[in-house]
Please model this.
Amino acid sequence: EVQLVESGGGLVKPGGSLRLSCAASGFAFNYAWMSWVRQAPGKGLEWVGRIKSKTDGGTTDYAAPVKGRFTISRDDSENTLFLQMNSLKTEDTAVYYCTTAGGSNWGQGTLVTVSS
Amino acid sequence: QSALTQPASVSGSPGQSITISCTGTISDVGGYNYVSWYQQYPGKAPKLMIYDVSNRPSGVSNRFSGSKSGNTASLTISGLQAEDEADYYCSSHTSSNTRVFGGGTRLTVL
Model:
């Protein structure tokens, strides 16, 4: 059974940093392209970014609002996806979901609140 | 990259069919056959219902179907059931090698 479990969310002040993790199991993580999607309270879904598998180059792409502030990385030896978030803004407050890039599988989400 | 345009809400009675539209541009919906549709219940993670415009993942009811014409994709739900009441989102690949979501549509089953 495919499982994606996010962790690392919490309350952080504007300008601060946070690192989210997503533990994957039940599929060949090292071959999977993975994405992060977020959802602000009461709002719609917003694509954050994607990382390709290392066999496909391991490159990343980001949505304009987070480019230069967020970094996606992966540790295939630990089947774990990461989202490093720097220079956080209040508008980054959202539930952050880890997903397989095709959208077939989603984690339960982790809440990030950016507030002073 | 602007969000794709969806109606804020649609409604229908049990047994009826409804269609949700998703309008983009030639740089996203119109340029690629990589449109997906998601169903989301309150407080839950989204679920993939349609991928690559018209393909259904295993386990998704055949009451759900997808199509595309020009820059507009559509999700049709036939034989509407109470359990279909949820939020629906479209998503497309873009020419910037990113993805973009629609604003979401709240489906109400009357």
